[in-house]
Amino acid sequence: MFSSHIRLVDRAMFARHLAMMIRSGISLPEALRVLELETKTPAFRKILSRICADIEGGKKLAEALFIHPKDFDPFFVSVVEVSEESGTLAENLDFLGKQLSKEHRLQKKIQGILLYPSLILGMAVVLGSFISIFILPKLLDLFTSLDVELPLSTRVLLWFANGMEAYGLVILASLAVMLLAFRFLVRLRSVIPLWHSFLLRLPVLGSFLAAVSLGRFFRGLGIMMRSGLPLVHALGVEERSLNNRVFSRYARELMRGVASGSELSALLSRPEFRRVPPLATKMIAVGERTGKLDESFFFLSEFFDEEVDTIARRFSTLLEPALLFLIAGVVLFIALSIITPIYSLTGSLQR
Questions:
Q1: What is the largest CA-CA distance in the chain?
Q2: Which domains are seen in the chain, by residue range?
Q3: What's the per-residue H, E or C state across 3-49?
């Protein structure tokens, strides 16, 4: 929902370093000035300068952060706000920084797992484009001049080469326009919920996205409840913070149910919350009975983070050989399409 100008790791380091300096007895404005001088990101340095100016002008830290919603989401601001009211700013900032660092490490791990398949796919696209634009058109005249019957694979290759030679730029431009139009369409306010719901229904990607959203959802609830926010307030913050609109709607409906007196576990057992697995419902019920709901939330966040890691590894394991077979099949098709008519021609000349 919010597009940040600063990286997740910058926010994590900001929270942890600020907590360390506040614990050391450094005043909040002075600590912010130190962080402004130390940060290496120009955009973040400007933001810290404005925040520090607002603090020196009499605003609280939460009020200063609230002015930058693209950099500090409602979740971050709410934790700071309740921490300032309870006098536990340093402790909660340190805990928040650790949780954000954990989320950053998870993101890096997923990126590392998917790096190799992405490189293979990228190289295949580049190689295919090079062959289509520079090599196939040159073979067109050669094949059409051969006085032999061309096999089906060669005729298909010639048809593709003809199309690329005559309409290559038009095809590429059309694909680019379609991609831009699609990106614009899925960002429309009325289309986003439908698009997110569609993504969650996909076989592998849907499970992955659901695990990512559930991990963030429960981690956010755990942090806010440990910071002292009531569950109703925490659910309201999650509604505004979650990127996936399906789970954002879940948070809104759960907030209304909890506000009317229902238990969270009872609400999650309803059919409309089918994206939340029974394990989560049972763990939350245990937390409600024992009075340790925040610990249940943290357990679930760890569980779904591991699920994300497992799905990403499984997807990478399946995708790598699939891409290799696909590339090998394309190369074999092109090689046979080129070699077969030449072999037929040399055979006819020898006779």
A1: 97
A2: 8-72 (no CATH), 101-351 (1.20.81.30)
A3: CCCCCHHHHHHHHHHHHHHHHCCCCHHHHHHHHHHHCCCHHHHHHHH
Residue linked to tokens 């997110």:
196
Give which of 214, 235, 209 is closest to 311, Cα–Cα: 209
Q: CB–CB of 271/252 below 8 Å?
A: no
Paired tokens of 140: 């067109």
Q: pLDDT in tens for each of the 351 residues of the chain?
A: 444 567 888 888 999 999 999 998 999 989 999 998 888 888 888 999 999 999 988 899 999 999 988 888 888 888 888 888 888 888 888 888 888 888 888 778 777 777 777 777 777 777 766 776 677 667 666 666 666 677 787 778 778 777 777 777 788 789 899 999 999 998 888 899 999 999 999 888 888 889 989 998 998 898 888 888 889 999 998 988 888 899 999 999 999 999 999 999 999 999 999 899 999 999 999 999 998 999 999 999 989 988 988 888 887 777 778 877 887 887 788 777 777 777 766 665 555
